[in-house]
Amino acid sequence: MDLADKEVGRTLNAATAPRADYDPAYDPLLDSTPGQGRDYAPSYWIGTAGEPPGDDGPVTQDMDADVVIIGSGFTGLTTAIFLAQEYGIKATVLEANRTAWGCSTRNGGQAQCASGRLKRSQWISRWGLDTALKMHRECVEGMENFKELIKDIDCDPQPGGHLYVAHRAKVMPALEKEAALLRETFGYNARILDAQTVRNEWVGDHEAHGAMHEPEGIGIHAAKLAFGYLKKARALGVKVHPASPVQGWETRNGQHYLRTPGGVVRARAVGVATGGYTANALNPEFRNRLFPILSNSMVTRPLTAAEIEACNIRTHQVLTDTRVLRNYYRLLPDNRLQIGSRSAISGRDAPQEQYRRSLEDGLARKFPALKGIQIDYSWWGWVDVSHDMMPRIVQPNKNETLYYAMGYGGNGVMYSAQAGRRLAQLIAGKGGELDLPIFQSRLPFPNVREMVTSEAFAPFRRFGQRFLYRWYYLKDEVL
Length: 479
Ligand SMILES: Cc1cc2nc3c(=O)[nH]c(=O)nc-3n(C[C@H](O)[C@H](O)[C@H](O)COP(=O)(O)OP(=O)(O)OC[C@H]3O[C@@H](n4cnc5c(N)ncnc54)[C@H](O)[C@@H]3O)c2cc1C
Fold this sequence. Notes:
- By secondary structure, the protein is an alpha/beta fold.
- The protein is built from 13 helices and 18 strands.
- The protein has helices at about 45-50, 75-85, 120-125, 130-150, 170-185, 195-200, 220-235, 305-310, 355-365, 410-425, 435-440, 450, 460-479, and strands spanning about 65-70, 90-95, 110, 160-165, 190-195, 210-215, 220, 240, 250, 255-260, 265-270, 295-300, 320, 330, 335-340, 375-385, 390-395, 400-405.
- Bound molecules: flavin-adenine dinucleotide.
C-alpha cells in the first residue's frame, strides 16, 4: 500500500513504507537534509522491535497546522505528547525519513540522570553552586518524568542504576571526589566500589579499577520506546507525517511556511527537534551551532551461560567507562552484549571496517573470553554535541514563534523526554519560570568563530576534531 496516495489527515493504521534505502554515509555537515523516506539504520533495536506502528502518511498537499514539530525522534514525539496532554495543542510532526529514524532508534538505550556532557563539579565551576543544584533537580525531575512516561510502554526496562567504571587506576581519586560531591552537596547517593567488588560482584571487566555506582539509570529498548511514544502521540490526536523533509522555510507576517516535497505546511509556531541531524540549511538560526559527532554501536549474538560466567557479568544495569571517548555497554535482556563508542569523523568514512574493528578490540580488552565473538548488529548515528557540551531548550527570539530543543551530547535518552516537556511548556507560552541557563540562551558558537562559521571551513572543524580525538586518546590510554 502506498500511503503517500492516501488523503492527509485520515487515520492510517500501517507504517509508511520506506521510499529509499538507508544511507550509511549521510553527513549533516555536508548534506542539506537527511533524505526523504529513507529506511532505518540496521540497528539491533530496529531488528527486534517488530513492525513500526501506523503513522499519518507523507504530506501530499498544502496544509495549515497550528504547531509543527520538525523531527520525530524522542524529542519531537515527547514534545507533541506534552503539548496535547498538558495544553490541548495537537501538533503536526514532520519527519524526513521513517518515524524516529535518527538517533532515537540507534542509541545505547541508557537512560541516565544527566543532561549534556558536563559533570556536576563542572556545573559548579561554570555557573556556581545555586544554579548547579537547580540543574541537578532538573535532571532528577527529568528522571521521574521519564519513569512516568514509560510506565505503560513495553520497552524492556532494565532498572537499578548506572555503573561508571574506572578504566585506569589513576582516575579513581577524581571519581571518589565526584562521588563525595554528589552525596554531600547534591544529596545523590553515589557509591564508590573498589576493583575487587566491581569484578567479583558486578562485572568482570578486565579494565575495571573500581567504579562509581549511581542510584539512577535504566536500560531501555530504544525502538520500542520510540514506537511507544509514536502510539501515545497519535492516540492523543497528534499527526505524524514521515517522508516529509522540510526543504525550505520562510516566515512572513508571523506565519511559518515549511516546504516539503508533498506540499507547503503553514504553521503558527514551529518546534525544532532535529538533533544531530540538523542541517545547516534548515534555518539560519542553526547554522554551525551544533557539532554533530558519530557514535557507533554493536550487539553480539546471545552469550551462552558459560560465556556470561567467564566474563562474570552479574548485572543488567547500564555501564559506561571513564574514557573521554567513553565506552557504553550492557548485557541486554536476551543476553547479548551491546557496546558502543566514538566512530569516524565524517559520514563518508563511517562504513569503514576499522571503526567496527576498534569496537571489537575494545570489547575483547574488557572481556577477553569474547574475543572474536559473532557480531549480529552494527550501526552508527550522529550525536548532537553542542559547543559548550550542554543542551538548549529555547525560544531564541522572543518576537518569533520558533523554538528548539537539542544538544544533549549523547545523554538524550532520558533528558529528551524532559526537554520535550520543557519545549511544550515554551511553545504553549508557559515557560516563564524556566530560569536555568539551558533555557535562557541559544546554542553557542564555537570559540574560534571565524574558522568555523561557514561550511567552507567544515574541513578545518574536522581537522580540529582529529586533533582532539588524538589528544583524548593520549589522555585516555597513555598519559
Ligand atoms: C550510537 C549512539 C548511541 C547513543 N547512546 C545513548 C545512550 O546510551 N544514552 C543516551 O542518553 N543517549 C544516547 N545517544 C544519544 C540519543 O540517542 C539522542 O540524544 C536522542 O535520541 C536524541 O533524540 P532527538 O529526538 O533529539 O533526535 P533524533 O532521534 O536524532 O531525531 C531527529 C530527527 O529529525 C529528523 N530531521 C532532521 N532534519 C529534518 C528535516 N529537515 N525535516 C524533517 N525531519 C528532519 C531526522 O530524520 C531525525 O529522525 C546515542 C546516540 C547514538 C548515535
